[in-house]
Amino acid sequence: MYKKYLIVASKKDKAGINITTALSQFGDFKFHLIETDIVDDKGLDMEKINEYDFVIFASKHASEKGIKSLSVHAPGNFRNADYGGKPNKVCKSSALFQKQLFETLVSVAEEHNLQDYEITLECTHHGPLISKPCVFIEVGSSEMEWNDRQAAFIVAKTISKTIQEFKENPYREVVIGIGGPHYCPNFNKLQLKSNYALSHIIPEYCLPLTDEMIKEAVEKTEEEIDLALLDWKGMGNEEERKRILKILDDNYIRYKKTSEASREI
Fold first, then answer.
1. 258 is in which domain, residue-wise?
2. How many whole angstroms separate alpha carbon 98 and alpha carbon 103?
3. pLDDT at 63 exceeding the cut of 90
């Protein structure tokens, strides 16, 4: 499916530079090192990006709680564009690549006995907005972790291994996620342990859901969507849940609660 991969990092981002430096020991990768923040569309050479099939953004993750984390997510904005990109627009995402990247990240971290880091999906958020399918893989959430060479090595090895071993799996069920918090605990479990492959995730804080949001998530998934997974308790009140189900029905999208999907594991 994808033959030419580009790794993007910001020169201002210590985690991103540590990841790209570590990647050099795993082979000859193509890099695009930018001068601006990684979420800033203006810093990207779009002509260069358009020469490649798939783009991997390697970066830091920042949070006020400072939780040590390695995370994976699709970029884009379902609401406002406060951190790059454009309002109501998301990037193309490959559910199959994201699933394999996440599975590999967990296994490589275990292999190298990484301690005290949470490994998690994040919902779709922030820029930049590009026309090629892409994914973010991040080290968080403070200066200490951004300078952690072991964490950078694990992310680099994960990128290398996923690129080398990525294969399309026609038996996966490709899904979008709706509801729940930013770090997606119910979706994490399914991405790691089930046959479901998650593309875009629309969190509870982006609700109320709109018809346009669903269409954007579906159309910007490289693979054909089989259904939507619903984090039922994280979908607002009863009225909002009914609205969401009606939007899915109107768009002929099947759905299943994450609690039901978890019982299949």
1. 173-262
2. 9
3. no
